[in-house]
Amino acid sequence: MLKRVGIIGAGISGLTSGYALREQGLEVDLYERSGSINEFGAGITLSKNATSLLRDLGLFDSIAANGVFPGKSYIRDYKNCDVINSMELDDNFLTVDRRDLVDQIAIRFQGIKGNIHFNKEVTSICPSTGSISFSNHHDESYDLILVCDGIRSSLRDSHFGAQKPKFTNYIAWRGMTEKENLPQFDDSEKVNVYYGPGSHWVHYPIGRDGMINFVAIERNPNWSEESWKVEGDKLSFLKSFKGWNEDLISMANSSEKLYRWGVFERPLPKSLFNGKAVLMGDAAHPMVPFLGQGGCLAIEDAYCLSSLIRKIKDLNQILGVFDQMRNKRSRWIQKRSRLQGIFNHISNPILTPMRNFIAKVSMRSSVTKIHSYNLNEELSLKINSKL
Ligand SMILES: Cc1cc2nc3c(=O)[nH]c(=O)nc-3n(C[C@H](O)[C@H](O)[C@H](O)COP(=O)(O)OP(=O)(O)OC[C@H]3O[C@@H](n4cnc5c(N)ncnc54)[C@H](O)[C@@H]3O)c2cc1C
Fold first, then answer.
1. Domains of the chain, with CATH numbers?
2. What is the pLDDT of residue 227?
3. Relative to the CA of 13, which ligand 1 atom is closest?
4. pLDDT of 210
5. Which residue owns the Cα nearest ligand 1 atom 3?
Protein backbone atom coordinates (compact mmCIF):
# COMPACT_ATOMS: atom_id res chain seq x y z
CA MET A 1 0.00 0.00 0.00
CA LEU A 2 1.39 3.35 -1.11
CA LYS A 3 1.82 5.74 1.83
CA ARG A 4 4.81 8.03 1.40
CA VAL A 5 5.72 9.87 -1.78
CA GLY A 6 8.88 11.95 -2.31
CA ILE A 7 8.81 14.56 -5.10
CA ILE A 8 11.86 16.26 -6.57
CA GLY A 9 11.27 19.75 -7.99
CA ALA A 10 8.68 22.43 -7.18
CA GLY A 11 7.69 23.40 -10.73
CA ILE A 12 4.27 22.87 -12.34
CA SER A 13 4.61 19.09 -12.42
CA GLY A 14 5.97 18.58 -8.88
CA LEU A 15 3.48 20.94 -7.25
CA THR A 16 0.39 19.69 -9.13
CA SER A 17 1.35 16.09 -8.41
CA GLY A 18 2.01 16.92 -4.78
CA TYR A 19 -1.37 18.56 -4.38
CA ALA A 20 -3.28 15.76 -6.14
CA LEU A 21 -1.61 13.06 -4.03
CA ARG A 22 -1.79 14.89 -0.72
CA GLU A 23 -5.46 15.54 -1.40
CA GLN A 24 -6.09 11.80 -1.36
CA GLY A 25 -4.37 11.48 2.01
CA LEU A 26 -0.85 10.38 1.08
CA GLU A 27 2.15 11.71 2.96
CA VAL A 28 4.00 13.93 0.50
CA ASP A 29 7.45 15.56 0.79
CA LEU A 30 8.45 17.90 -2.01
CA TYR A 31 12.14 18.82 -2.31
CA GLU A 32 13.24 21.99 -4.12
CA ARG A 33 16.86 23.01 -4.48
CA SER A 34 16.04 26.75 -4.57
CA GLY A 35 15.29 28.80 -1.48
CA SER A 36 11.76 29.56 -2.66
CA ILE A 37 9.42 28.88 -5.56
CA ASN A 38 11.66 29.57 -8.50
CA GLU A 39 9.39 30.76 -11.34
CA PHE A 40 10.38 33.67 -13.52
CA GLY A 41 8.01 36.43 -14.61
CA ALA A 42 6.56 35.30 -17.93
CA GLY A 43 3.20 34.21 -19.22
CA ILE A 44 1.83 30.75 -19.78
CA THR A 45 -1.25 29.64 -21.73
CA LEU A 46 -3.35 26.79 -20.39
CA SER A 47 -5.80 25.00 -22.68
CA LYS A 48 -8.84 22.86 -21.93
CA ASN A 49 -6.90 19.58 -21.71
CA ALA A 50 -5.19 21.05 -18.61
CA THR A 51 -7.76 23.53 -17.26
CA SER A 52 -10.47 20.84 -17.13
CA LEU A 53 -8.16 18.79 -14.87
CA LEU A 54 -7.34 21.80 -12.70
CA ARG A 55 -11.12 22.26 -12.31
CA ASP A 56 -11.52 18.61 -11.23
CA LEU A 57 -8.73 19.07 -8.71
CA GLY A 58 -10.41 22.19 -7.33
CA LEU A 59 -7.38 24.33 -8.25
CA PHE A 60 -8.77 26.22 -11.21
CA ASP A 61 -10.71 29.07 -9.60
CA SER A 62 -7.85 30.42 -7.53
CA ILE A 63 -5.51 30.25 -10.54
CA ALA A 64 -8.08 31.84 -12.86
CA ALA A 65 -8.66 34.65 -10.34
CA ASN A 66 -5.13 35.85 -11.19
CA GLY A 67 -5.30 35.20 -14.94
CA VAL A 68 -7.24 36.26 -18.03
CA PHE A 69 -9.71 34.56 -20.36
CA PRO A 70 -8.53 36.21 -23.57
CA GLY A 71 -11.65 35.10 -25.49
CA LYS A 72 -10.15 35.09 -28.97
CA SER A 73 -6.91 34.35 -30.80
CA TYR A 74 -5.62 35.65 -34.11
CA ILE A 75 -2.97 34.66 -36.61
CA ARG A 76 -1.63 37.72 -38.42
CA ASP A 77 0.93 38.78 -40.96
CA TYR A 78 4.24 40.01 -39.51
CA LYS A 79 4.41 43.16 -41.60
CA ASN A 80 0.94 44.67 -41.91
CA CYS A 81 -0.71 42.67 -39.06
CA ASP A 82 -3.56 41.67 -41.40
CA VAL A 83 -5.61 38.80 -40.05
CA ILE A 84 -4.86 35.39 -41.58
CA ASN A 85 -7.36 33.63 -39.33
CA SER A 86 -9.03 33.98 -35.96
CA MET A 87 -10.77 31.71 -33.50
CA GLU A 88 -13.02 32.20 -30.47
CA LEU A 89 -11.68 30.85 -27.16
CA ASP A 90 -14.02 29.92 -24.33
CA ASP A 91 -13.40 30.03 -20.58
CA ASN A 92 -11.38 26.83 -20.78
CA PHE A 93 -8.47 28.79 -22.24
CA LEU A 94 -6.59 30.79 -19.64
CA THR A 95 -3.48 32.96 -19.78
CA VAL A 96 -1.65 33.72 -16.54
CA ASP A 97 1.67 34.79 -15.06
CA ARG A 98 3.69 31.66 -14.31
CA ARG A 99 4.52 32.97 -10.83
CA ASP A 100 0.82 33.20 -9.99
CA LEU A 101 0.18 29.71 -11.36
CA VAL A 102 2.83 27.98 -9.26
CA ASP A 103 2.29 30.20 -6.20
CA GLN A 104 -1.38 29.29 -6.13
CA ILE A 105 -0.72 25.56 -6.40
CA ALA A 106 2.00 25.80 -3.74
CA ILE A 107 -0.34 27.66 -1.35
CA ARG A 108 -3.04 25.03 -1.85
CA PHE A 109 -0.55 22.19 -1.39
CA GLN A 110 0.79 23.66 1.84
CA GLY A 111 -2.79 24.39 2.94
CA ILE A 112 -3.48 20.63 3.07
CA LYS A 113 -0.25 19.96 4.99
CA GLY A 114 1.91 19.14 2.00
CA ASN A 115 5.57 19.67 2.93
CA ILE A 116 7.83 21.75 0.67
CA HIS A 117 11.47 21.52 1.74
CA PHE A 118 13.39 24.41 0.19
CA ASN A 119 17.17 24.52 -0.22
CA LYS A 120 17.13 20.73 -0.50
CA GLU A 121 19.09 19.63 -3.52
CA VAL A 122 18.64 15.96 -4.32
CA THR A 123 21.98 14.49 -5.38
CA SER A 124 20.90 10.92 -6.11
CA ILE A 125 18.06 8.44 -5.84
CA CYS A 126 17.91 4.67 -5.59
CA PRO A 127 14.96 3.52 -7.75
CA SER A 128 14.99 -0.03 -6.35
CA THR A 129 14.69 0.98 -2.66
CA GLY A 130 12.93 4.34 -3.08
CA SER A 131 15.60 6.29 -1.24
CA ILE A 132 16.47 9.94 -1.95
CA SER A 133 19.86 11.39 -0.97
CA PHE A 134 20.70 15.04 -0.41
CA SER A 135 23.85 17.14 -0.62
CA ASN A 136 24.22 17.02 3.21
CA HIS A 137 24.45 13.18 2.99
CA HIS A 138 21.05 12.76 4.56
CA ASP A 139 18.71 10.03 3.10
CA GLU A 140 14.94 9.58 3.10
CA SER A 141 12.95 6.54 1.94
CA TYR A 142 9.68 6.55 0.03
CA ASP A 143 7.21 4.12 -1.52
CA LEU A 144 7.34 6.18 -4.72
CA ILE A 145 9.63 8.94 -6.07
CA LEU A 146 8.39 11.50 -8.61
CA VAL A 147 11.27 12.94 -10.59
CA CYS A 148 10.00 16.42 -11.57
CA ASP A 149 13.34 18.22 -11.86
CA GLY A 150 12.84 19.78 -15.29
CA ILE A 151 14.43 19.56 -18.72
CA ARG A 152 17.97 19.37 -17.35
CA SER A 153 17.10 16.53 -15.00
CA SER A 154 20.34 15.04 -13.75
CA LEU A 155 18.43 12.16 -12.13
CA ARG A 156 17.10 11.22 -15.55
CA ASP A 157 20.69 11.07 -16.81
CA SER A 158 21.56 8.55 -14.11
CA HIS A 159 18.51 6.28 -14.18
CA PHE A 160 16.55 6.62 -17.41
CA GLY A 161 19.09 6.65 -20.23
CA ALA A 162 21.59 9.24 -21.24
CA GLN A 163 20.06 11.30 -24.07
CA LYS A 164 21.08 14.88 -23.34
CA PRO A 165 18.92 17.97 -24.03
CA LYS A 166 19.59 19.15 -27.58
CA PHE A 167 19.53 22.71 -28.91
CA THR A 168 16.75 22.97 -31.52
CA ASN A 169 18.14 25.94 -33.50
CA TYR A 170 15.36 28.15 -32.14
CA ILE A 171 15.95 31.14 -29.92
CA ALA A 172 13.07 32.64 -27.95
CA TRP A 173 13.11 36.32 -26.94
CA ARG A 174 10.75 37.04 -24.08
CA GLY A 175 9.58 40.21 -22.45
CA MET A 176 6.71 41.98 -20.71
CA THR A 177 5.14 45.31 -21.44
CA GLU A 178 2.16 47.46 -20.44
CA LYS A 179 -1.10 47.27 -22.36
CA GLU A 180 -0.65 50.85 -23.67
CA ASN A 181 2.34 49.65 -25.71
CA LEU A 182 0.31 47.16 -27.75
CA PRO A 183 -0.11 47.85 -31.47
CA GLN A 184 -3.22 49.98 -32.09
CA PHE A 185 -5.67 47.65 -33.81
CA ASP A 186 -8.84 45.94 -32.64
CA ASP A 187 -8.27 42.99 -30.32
CA SER A 188 -4.53 43.54 -29.98
CA GLU A 189 -5.05 42.67 -26.28
CA LYS A 190 -6.21 39.12 -27.17
CA VAL A 191 -3.88 36.23 -28.08
CA ASN A 192 -2.07 37.35 -31.24
CA VAL A 193 0.33 35.21 -33.23
CA TYR A 194 2.31 36.63 -36.17
CA TYR A 195 3.95 34.64 -38.95
CA GLY A 196 7.10 36.10 -40.47
CA PRO A 197 9.92 34.67 -42.57
CA GLY A 198 11.81 32.14 -40.42
CA SER A 199 10.30 33.58 -37.24
CA HIS A 200 7.05 34.07 -35.37
CA TRP A 201 5.76 36.09 -32.43
CA VAL A 202 3.01 35.70 -29.91
CA HIS A 203 1.66 38.11 -27.31
CA TYR A 204 -1.15 37.82 -24.79
CA PRO A 205 -2.35 39.36 -21.51
CA ILE A 206 -1.37 37.67 -18.25
CA GLY A 207 -3.56 39.36 -15.65
CA ARG A 208 -0.83 40.50 -13.26
CA ASP A 209 -0.75 44.34 -13.25
CA GLY A 210 -2.44 44.38 -16.68
CA MET A 211 0.82 43.28 -18.27
CA ILE A 212 1.31 41.71 -21.70
CA ASN A 213 3.69 38.81 -22.25
CA PHE A 214 5.40 38.46 -25.61
CA VAL A 215 7.64 35.82 -27.12
CA ALA A 216 9.48 36.23 -30.43
CA ILE A 217 11.06 33.11 -31.87
CA GLU A 218 13.81 33.13 -34.46
CA ARG A 219 15.53 30.25 -36.18
CA ASN A 220 19.19 30.64 -35.40
CA PRO A 221 21.75 27.82 -35.23
CA ASN A 222 24.16 29.85 -33.07
CA TRP A 223 23.65 29.35 -29.41
CA SER A 224 26.82 29.65 -27.37
CA GLU A 225 25.66 30.61 -23.86
CA GLU A 226 25.99 28.02 -21.19
CA SER A 227 22.75 29.15 -19.60
CA TRP A 228 19.68 28.99 -21.82
CA LYS A 229 17.97 31.99 -20.26
CA VAL A 230 20.06 35.15 -20.37
CA GLU A 231 19.35 38.83 -20.71
CA GLY A 232 19.54 39.69 -24.40
CA ASP A 233 20.59 43.00 -25.90
CA LYS A 234 18.06 45.03 -27.82
CA LEU A 235 20.37 45.71 -30.77
CA SER A 236 20.70 41.99 -31.56
CA PHE A 237 16.95 41.67 -31.16
CA LEU A 238 16.33 44.51 -33.66
CA LYS A 239 18.77 42.91 -36.06
CA SER A 240 17.00 39.55 -35.85
CA PHE A 241 13.57 41.06 -36.51
CA LYS A 242 14.45 43.69 -39.11
CA GLY A 243 11.49 44.26 -41.45
CA TRP A 244 8.83 43.40 -38.86
CA ASN A 245 5.93 45.76 -38.23
CA GLU A 246 7.16 48.93 -36.50
CA ASP A 247 4.45 48.92 -33.84
CA LEU A 248 5.42 45.37 -32.87
CA ILE A 249 9.08 46.31 -32.68
CA SER A 250 8.29 49.32 -30.54
CA MET A 251 6.13 47.13 -28.25
CA ALA A 252 9.10 44.79 -27.74
CA ASN A 253 11.44 47.75 -27.26
CA SER A 254 9.23 49.06 -24.47
CA SER A 255 9.96 45.99 -22.33
CA GLU A 256 12.32 46.92 -19.51
CA LYS A 257 14.35 43.76 -20.16
CA LEU A 258 14.46 41.20 -22.95
CA TYR A 259 15.45 37.63 -22.16
CA ARG A 260 17.06 35.42 -24.75
CA TRP A 261 16.41 31.77 -24.41
CA GLY A 262 17.79 28.77 -26.29
CA VAL A 263 15.01 26.28 -26.96
CA PHE A 264 16.02 22.71 -26.11
CA GLU A 265 14.35 19.36 -26.52
CA ARG A 266 15.01 15.86 -25.24
CA PRO A 267 13.58 12.63 -26.63
CA LEU A 268 11.37 10.58 -24.33
CA PRO A 269 13.11 7.67 -22.62
CA LYS A 270 11.95 4.14 -23.49
CA SER A 271 10.23 3.83 -20.14
CA LEU A 272 8.99 6.62 -17.87
CA PHE A 273 9.59 4.55 -14.75
CA ASN A 274 12.39 2.60 -13.20
CA GLY A 275 11.65 0.63 -10.01
CA LYS A 276 9.92 3.05 -7.64
CA ALA A 277 10.90 6.21 -9.57
CA VAL A 278 8.83 7.89 -12.27
CA LEU A 279 9.62 10.81 -14.59
CA MET A 280 7.09 13.62 -14.96
CA GLY A 281 6.79 16.95 -16.79
CA ASP A 282 9.83 18.39 -18.56
CA ALA A 283 12.10 15.79 -16.97
CA ALA A 284 10.18 13.27 -19.09
CA HIS A 285 9.13 15.10 -22.26
CA PRO A 286 10.46 18.62 -22.80
CA MET A 287 9.28 20.00 -26.12
CA VAL A 288 9.53 23.05 -28.34
CA PRO A 289 6.91 25.51 -27.03
CA PHE A 290 5.03 26.19 -30.28
CA LEU A 291 1.77 24.59 -29.19
CA GLY A 292 1.96 25.86 -25.59
CA GLN A 293 1.66 22.33 -24.23
CA GLY A 294 4.69 21.58 -21.99
CA GLY A 295 3.05 22.86 -18.79
CA CYS A 296 -0.35 21.44 -19.84
CA LEU A 297 1.21 17.98 -20.22
CA ALA A 298 2.86 18.33 -16.80
CA ILE A 299 -0.65 18.88 -15.37
CA GLU A 300 -1.98 15.90 -17.35
CA ASP A 301 0.87 13.75 -15.96
CA ALA A 302 0.07 14.77 -12.38
CA TYR A 303 -3.64 14.10 -12.77
CA CYS A 304 -3.08 10.79 -14.56
CA LEU A 305 -0.70 9.39 -11.94
CA SER A 306 -2.81 10.48 -8.98
CA SER A 307 -5.97 9.00 -10.56
CA LEU A 308 -4.22 5.68 -11.15
CA ILE A 309 -2.96 5.65 -7.57
CA ARG A 310 -6.50 6.30 -6.33
CA LYS A 311 -7.94 3.40 -8.34
CA ILE A 312 -5.25 0.71 -8.60
CA LYS A 313 -3.46 -0.88 -5.63
CA ASP A 314 -0.43 -2.49 -7.25
CA LEU A 315 2.49 -0.07 -7.87
CA ASN A 316 3.86 -1.97 -10.87
CA GLN A 317 0.46 -1.88 -12.51
CA ILE A 318 0.05 1.83 -11.75
CA LEU A 319 3.40 2.69 -13.28
CA GLY A 320 2.87 0.36 -16.25
CA VAL A 321 -0.43 2.03 -17.19
CA PHE A 322 1.01 5.51 -16.55
CA ASP A 323 3.91 4.74 -18.86
CA GLN A 324 1.65 3.45 -21.63
CA MET A 325 -0.69 6.42 -21.48
CA ARG A 326 1.78 9.23 -21.00
CA ASN A 327 4.46 7.94 -23.34
CA LYS A 328 1.97 7.79 -26.21
CA ARG A 329 0.34 11.16 -25.58
CA SER A 330 3.57 13.10 -24.91
CA ARG A 331 5.41 11.55 -27.84
CA TRP A 332 2.61 12.67 -30.12
CA ILE A 333 2.46 16.23 -28.73
CA GLN A 334 6.26 16.50 -28.83
CA LYS A 335 6.21 15.53 -32.51
CA ARG A 336 3.27 17.86 -33.31
CA SER A 337 5.06 20.74 -31.58
CA ARG A 338 8.14 20.10 -33.72
CA LEU A 339 6.02 20.12 -36.90
CA GLN A 340 4.34 23.32 -35.76
CA GLY A 341 7.83 24.83 -35.52
CA ILE A 342 8.53 23.97 -39.16
CA PHE A 343 5.13 25.35 -40.18
CA ASN A 344 5.48 28.61 -38.20
CA HIS A 345 8.95 29.35 -39.52
CA ILE A 346 8.60 28.84 -43.26
CA SER A 347 10.65 31.49 -45.03
CA ASN A 348 10.35 30.48 -48.69
CA PRO A 349 8.15 33.19 -50.32
CA ILE A 350 6.51 30.61 -52.59
CA LEU A 351 5.50 28.42 -49.65
CA THR A 352 4.36 31.27 -47.38
CA PRO A 353 0.94 31.85 -49.05
CA MET A 354 0.34 28.08 -48.96
CA ARG A 355 1.19 27.99 -45.26
CA ASN A 356 -1.17 30.91 -44.61
CA PHE A 357 -3.93 29.18 -46.54
CA ILE A 358 -3.49 26.01 -44.48
CA ALA A 359 -3.56 28.11 -41.29
CA LYS A 360 -6.81 29.67 -42.54
CA VAL A 361 -8.60 26.41 -43.24
CA SER A 362 -7.23 24.16 -40.50
CA MET A 363 -6.40 26.30 -37.45
CA ARG A 364 -9.54 25.40 -35.53
CA SER A 365 -9.48 21.65 -36.20
CA SER A 366 -5.78 21.20 -35.43
CA VAL A 367 -6.01 23.19 -32.18
CA THR A 368 -9.22 21.42 -31.13
CA LYS A 369 -7.64 18.02 -31.64
CA ILE A 370 -5.00 18.83 -29.02
CA HIS A 371 -7.12 20.79 -26.56
CA SER A 372 -10.09 18.41 -26.51
CA TYR A 373 -8.11 15.39 -25.31
CA ASN A 374 -10.17 13.73 -22.58
CA LEU A 375 -7.78 12.17 -20.09
CA ASN A 376 -10.61 10.96 -17.84
CA GLU A 377 -12.13 8.99 -20.70
CA GLU A 378 -8.83 7.26 -21.45
CA LEU A 379 -8.26 6.61 -17.74
CA SER A 380 -11.68 4.92 -17.39
CA LEU A 381 -10.95 2.62 -20.31
CA LYS A 382 -7.52 1.66 -19.01
CA ILE A 383 -8.58 1.23 -15.38
CA ASN A 384 -11.63 -0.86 -16.28
CA SER A 385 -9.47 -3.17 -18.37
CA LYS A 386 -7.13 -3.70 -15.38
CA LEU A 387 -9.76 -4.27 -12.66
C1 LIG B 1 9.59 29.89 -24.23
C2 LIG B 1 8.67 28.91 -23.55
C3 LIG B 1 7.30 29.14 -23.53
C4 LIG B 1 6.42 28.19 -22.96
N5 LIG B 1 5.08 28.43 -22.99
C6 LIG B 1 4.22 27.48 -22.51
C7 LIG B 1 2.80 27.69 -22.56
O8 LIG B 1 2.31 28.74 -22.99
N9 LIG B 1 1.98 26.69 -22.09
C10 LIG B 1 2.48 25.53 -21.56
O11 LIG B 1 1.70 24.66 -21.15
N12 LIG B 1 3.83 25.33 -21.49
C13 LIG B 1 4.70 26.27 -21.94
N14 LIG B 1 6.05 26.07 -21.86
C15 LIG B 1 6.55 24.81 -21.24
C16 LIG B 1 6.51 24.87 -19.70
O17 LIG B 1 7.15 26.04 -19.27
C18 LIG B 1 7.23 23.65 -19.10
O19 LIG B 1 6.79 22.49 -19.74
C20 LIG B 1 6.95 23.52 -17.59
O21 LIG B 1 7.37 24.68 -16.92
C22 LIG B 1 7.67 22.29 -17.02
O23 LIG B 1 7.44 22.22 -15.63
P24 LIG B 1 8.23 21.15 -14.73
O25 LIG B 1 7.64 21.26 -13.38
O26 LIG B 1 8.24 19.83 -15.39
O27 LIG B 1 9.75 21.63 -14.73
P28 LIG B 1 10.42 22.96 -14.14
O29 LIG B 1 9.48 24.11 -14.19
O30 LIG B 1 11.72 23.12 -14.86
O31 LIG B 1 10.68 22.65 -12.60
C32 LIG B 1 11.76 21.86 -12.16
C33 LIG B 1 12.06 22.22 -10.71
O34 LIG B 1 12.98 21.26 -10.19
C35 LIG B 1 13.95 21.92 -9.41
N36 LIG B 1 15.13 21.03 -9.36
C37 LIG B 1 15.94 20.68 -10.40
N38 LIG B 1 16.89 19.81 -10.00
C39 LIG B 1 16.68 19.59 -8.67
C40 LIG B 1 17.31 18.77 -7.69
N41 LIG B 1 18.37 17.99 -8.00
N42 LIG B 1 16.86 18.79 -6.41
C43 LIG B 1 15.76 19.56 -6.07
N44 LIG B 1 15.12 20.36 -6.98
C45 LIG B 1 15.56 20.37 -8.26
C46 LIG B 1 14.18 23.24 -10.14
O47 LIG B 1 14.75 24.21 -9.30
C48 LIG B 1 12.74 23.58 -10.55
O49 LIG B 1 12.07 24.33 -9.57
C50 LIG B 1 6.94 27.00 -22.40
C51 LIG B 1 8.34 26.79 -22.36
C52 LIG B 1 9.19 27.73 -22.94
C53 LIG B 1 10.67 27.46 -22.93
1. 4-165+266-386 (3.50.50.60)
2. 67
3. 25
4. 87
5. 289
